[in-house]
Amino acid sequence: MPEISAKQVQALRAKTDLAMMDCKAALVEANGDETKAMEILRKKFADKMSSRADKEAANGRIGVHACGTCVALAEMRCETDFVAGNESFRELADSIAKTAGSTGTTDVEALKNAKMASGRTVNETLVDAFGKLKENMNIQRVARHDGPGAAYVHHNGKVGAVIACDKDPGEAGRQICMHIASSVVLMGLVREDVKPDEVAAAREKAREEAKGKPEPIIEKIVSGKMDKWFGERVLLEQPFVMDDKKTVGQFAKENGFTVKAYLKYEVGGLS
Question: pTM for this structure?
């Protein structure tokens, strides 16, 4: 058995955050080679990770990324709310969102093979995180848009939003992301994004409510009701949550940018 010093064990533990005994055993097996020891630990905890695959990853948090060229969201799942609130898990979620943004990869399985800023693959990083946090975890979904933007995650980590703009939106962009995160109903950025069948149903309902009045009056009533309907559902027409005397679109324009796209994720949500 090679002589493994306490300093070697401590150095490996500092890099992996795993138990001292696990680190020492891996170094012994690797004949003191730290790189090989780290691979041994990844393999070991990958096996353990697989053995916990039946544990439901029902909790989680939203990772976000925004920079001068892209924005991205990642929904990360784990087993317990305790881990979902862990700082390491938050950093993991954000780093995976950043990787999706920088690589342009939004297919989850393909993303696992992508290289992160650390030089390791996403999958290797997930295995390392399992070794530290001891819970089954997975990437539920990711999405991205090109363009400078802003991001926001609600304090509980369960809801996150990003916007992509024509120019750097600064703090005003983050405030719009907060608006998006708090919005109960969002059907699109502009009216044209709303599904035609939903628009038709709303218009038919408005006409039914105005029935019995002269046709020109009905058209005015329907137009007014539809303006209100869209104003409740279309992002750029919604009253801005921090100043409801202006719309989100007006607030963005006042701050010198235009919102081109948005994304919102909620843990356990479908879209």
Answer: 0.78
